[in-house]
Amino acid sequence: MVEQTKSAAVNTSDRMSAEERRDDLINIALDLLRESGMEAITIGAVAELAGVTRTLVYKHFANRQDVINAVYQREAAKLHVTIRDRVVEATGFEGRLRAFVDAIIGAVDTHGWLFSPAESQTHEAGFRTEQAGRDRRTVREFAKLAGAEFGLSLREATSAMGILLSGLTSLRLQAHVLTSEADRAALAALYVDLVMAALKGLASGEGHYKGDTETSPGGASGDAAPDQPSPPPGAR
């Protein structure tokens, strides 16, 4: 794969725009990461495989860590868009939750090698901050849906979804082990059932938690809870 990338890069090296060149260098670094690990990514290795000088690579990246960061940032953004598109095609809270979970489990095969849960603390601070922002937006969006579906306040729904979505880390770890289609379908169904049961129980007021005093229909009122982190969808 790396040799094929080298050939393609050399053949097209004189016809690339700056944006295309940068993307090509990231592709080469991605192949190096996939085949040989992070340590294989150096400015010299990327330049050699691209058929260009180190100076040209430095025009796009400050150092090897900058190259590595660019790989993770681009792939995480692409994965986020893929998952988001799957979710918006579905309707209702449960439908979108199922689409979200199915997309995350599917990403275990396509991106699991790149974003394994075990590597979540190895990424640089900028990447983690960017990903955390996506996580918070995911929690907020599902909190709005849950509030409308179950009549919870925004505070309740946000806190609940932050806790429930944190279970995606375990879901992805189990999906790495349970590789058959039937096992993964059962895993997804179990997760969705647990979330739905938890929110129904919260809305019923039958547990120890007695609810917000400012709950209104649709979950539109009540102070928002602090942003709750959830694991990146299919990422890390």
UniProtKB/TrEMBL annotation:
This protein's UniProt keywords: DNA-binding, Transcription, Transcription regulation
Give the residues annotated as coiled coil.
none
Answer yes or no on keyword Disulfide bond. no
DNA-binding region residue numbers: 42-61
The segment annotated Disordered runs over 206-236
GO molecular function terms noted in the UniProt entry: DNA-binding transcription factor activity; transcription cis-regulatory region binding
Output the InterPro entries linked to this UniProt entry: Homeodomain-like_sf (IPR009057), HTH-type_TetR-like_transc_reg (IPR050109), HTH_TetR (IPR001647)
Q: Which domain of life is it from?
A: Bacteria
Which positions fall inside the HTH tetR-type domain?
A: 19-79
Residues annotated as signal peptide: none
Among the Pfam families in the record, one is TetR_N
Q: What is the protein named?
A: TetR/AcrR family transcriptional regulator
